[in-house]
Fold:
Amino acid sequence: MNWPRPNQISHRTWHVWRRNYSVYKQNWKISFIPPLLEPMFYILAFGLGLAVMIGDIELGGRLIPYTTFIAPALVAVAIMQNAFFETTFNSFVRMYYQKTFDALLTTPLNLEEVILGEMLWAATKSLIATVLMTVVLTLFGLISYPGALLLIPLALLGGLFFASVGMICTALVPGIEMFNLPIFLGITPMFLFSGTFFPLANLPAWAQQVAWWLPLTHLVALVRAGTLQMLDASLWLSVLYLALSTAFLVPLAIALMLRRIVR
Amino acid sequence: MAILKVDNLRKHYGKLAAVDGISFAVQRGECFGLLGPNGAGKTTTIRMLYGYTPRDAGILTLFDLDIDRDLRAIKRRIGICQQEDSLDPDLTVRQNLVGFARYFDIKKSEAEDRADELLHFFALENRAKDNIRILSGGLKRRLMLARALVNSPDLLILDEPTTGLDPQSRQLLWDKLAELKAQGLTTLLTTHYMEEAERLCDRLVIVDHGHILIEGRPKALVRQQIGHSVLEITDPDAAVRDFLAAENCRVEDLGKRILVYLDDGDDLFLRLTREVRAEGCTLRPATLEDLFLKLTGRELRE
Ligand SMILES: Nc1ncnc2c1ncn2[C@@H]1O[C@H](COP(=O)(O)OP(=O)(O)OP(=O)(O)O)[C@@H](O)[C@H]1O
Ligand SMILES: [Mg+2]
Structure:
């Protein structure tokens, strides 16, 4: 396998990013709706419907309303989904059906830059969704400042992590319908079992250990620590987990895409 | 000066030798044709020229730069119109051009001027704001060609630019290519239309199974290899065959059809139609298609 080298990456990577950004800008009115509406749906359903049955949740010695507990998890899930869906379905369509990558390769761009540009764009989509959701959640009074400012670097880090995971899927699937598999086996379980809707402590010990390895667990923990301003030293482990795996998965995604496309 | 030098280029896919030792050179200002049946290795050759497909062996030199050392500098100076449509369906016609210029680090204002110039040149102005998805095949092809020119390339590489076009669009593209050539643009062209190659190409190669079968100027090649004219006889009978057997001429018997390659004069044709039969006999000028079929055979490919 051919691993990408840093000297293959130039400023042209941003041209790929710009291409996706300019398409996104054209439909921003539609693109903005999900990150604005989705948290409202959840807050209404869980906050009005479920929270009254559950009451407060104890976290790090503090009692926290259930709605406040899930709000940061919704942001973490959005970070995951925006990046993952961008580098799976959307990148696959550009690569396979629209031949966008083929066209780009007739210009001075190389494939390493194309793939990295796609992943950076996916991380940007996570960031945009995070900012929009944060605005909504702030209006509901569910987020504290300045801790919430941590969401910006977290959205980029988590976005890049899940973008590379998605790109790896794109490099491996034979056809677009196969994305159902990683979604069913990865994204959906993570959505449910990463300390999103209930504290991990509620799980049996073995399941807690499994859940600890889920990347979304760490992203949820970090985002929640930011929005609730409950920072502690153990979070460095989560930062390390995401940073190190991203540093490995991004070049891996590029290498696998090269293996798929270069013939 | 050679703009492009291809030396002993090779590419294998498993056991298949898609390109099996191809060498040729394209001179400045020339239109060079790369002809061959389906699967001959034309697209594979072209893909290696811009580093899309890694080659197994061979030396590629463009603008006196080695492709391994200076790929980016080379790609900046070539325009490529791929065989498959790769326009950006998320963008309009004009945005396709302006956006593409960005990949060459062309400034926005310059890119917009260039886009308008090209829209005008290819008579696409009225469609500037249209979405790609609603364009007809001919318009898409025109836009692909326009896009290959946004960086004002020194070498234009066209992989079947006119396939699937109606006669009107093809004529328009031919005119445009002739105009570009008059401006001094060097072009490498693949096509399945022999008429197109005869018209546009100064020199050409015919490739089959990854090998070059012949190289030269189209008219001269036809003269040398086929002759001046071709006598075609449909549904030949024994009388016709006997008549031809007695003549000293080059005959290709296809069963239901006989081709006779003639060097000059219509003497044989006149005698045949007068003495044996006139029905089903036609005399026509020899074409590149005759040469192509003679060299690559008549069986169907792929
Ligand atoms: N990625 C690939 N993997 C395996 N075989 C390939 C690949 N690309 C091309 N080939 C094979 O290499 C041969 C040459 O293909 P190529 O596309 O270069 O032909 P071509 O001359 O452009 O044909 P056409 O006129 O149909 O476009 C064909 O037999 C083709 O099937
Ligand atoms: Mg081809």
